[in-house]
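Suppose you are handed a protein chain with no further information: no name, no annotation, nothing but its sequence. What can you learn? This example shows the usual starting point.
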Amino acid sequence: MKRHIFNQLQSWKQSKIRKPLILQGARQVGKTHILNAFASSEYKNRVYINFDKSVRAASIFEKDLDPHRIISELELQSGEKIIPRHTLIFFDEIQECPNALNSLKYFCEEASEYHVVAAGSLLGVKMAKNKGFPVGKVNFLELYPMTFLEFLYALDKKLLHDHLMQLAKIEPLSEIIHHDLCDLLKIYMTIGGMPEAVKTYIQTHDFQKVQIVHEEIIKAYLLDFSKHAPADQVMKITAIWNSLPAQLAKENKKFVFSIVKSGARAREYEIAMQWLIDAGLIYVSYAITAPKLPLKAYGDTSAFKLYCLDVGILGAMSELNPKIILEKNALFVEFKGALTENLAAQLLKSRGVKQLHYWTSGNTAEVDFILQVENIVQPLEVKAGVSAHKKSLMVYDQKHQPDMLNRANLLNLKQDGRVRNFPLYLLERFPIVDR
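A reasonable first move is to predict its three-dimensional structure. Written in structure tokens, the prediction is:
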């Protein structure tokens, strides 16, 4: 299945200042698949090492971290000749071999002619603990669950995908295309973007089978908690994870620790929450004290929301009945818009937003997302269904007088004075134009 990150992989290959590449991302978002596809398309051959499946492979890195000796042993073990610039060396599940992770420094410094990529589940967690990590000696890319536009491409709607990717103006789409896209978005919100779930839907069009895939992924995550997290944090990590549907179902979606456990305090759960963030399983959005640049300087780390990495996984955790997609707009108002807001967070992260933020004015107004696009602060209010209501945006406008106001819902793409409307299916293209 086509992934937009493929173009970034090609750019990495062609870069004159290329370093070994680490592809980050949560378990089962498609890291291994995309790197294998990249190798098949762009290289003459590939040497693949999976450190989770091959215990012997780690022994190659025990003697020393000399990249030229490592290359020789990789050739002997794999039976493949490693040719600079023509062979892709792929270290999968590299978190299982810290020495291999550290060797990337020496590939960068002493053997840059070789093209080396690495991926792994829970790599972010391992990197946070690994003191010998090759800081400054690697390139990074992040892979997220499939976006809605990638989902369209997987459905063989390539022309529609290309049309939306090439949009350069804020002007309405034809109504028939808009309505078709809204219907497809409802399906996407049920399935989500985990590649195995998308593949199952394409092959079977059976939402019950998709739900089984979701349940298996959730079970794998729960097993990861027990296997990889510190023993004293497993119950806390599990409790935070399991609380996500209840947290997002609230009218005020600010994370409340008492929902995790009665009497719980933030400091007791800091390590557990950071573990989930490092694992790529949750996205955090901080409240801002003022919508000024840089937003990071005005983030309030004591007030935040947590989102699930994938809207389909969130729906499964919420035990959402897949049949709800047959009800007009019902999917978008379920759980007080929880799925819609999570969808927005997921698509914004996939478009490259490093840190999510939101704005509140006491208990009177809340703008769901405050984004830093180039050197402009962009407020974005997300609404379920076809609501054009923008009370919170108007409160924000009165206080901060931005150049432009943005809202996302199921209405068509359009601009009305200083207010721009983005259909939810186009959020990964936000803001389409710079201003």
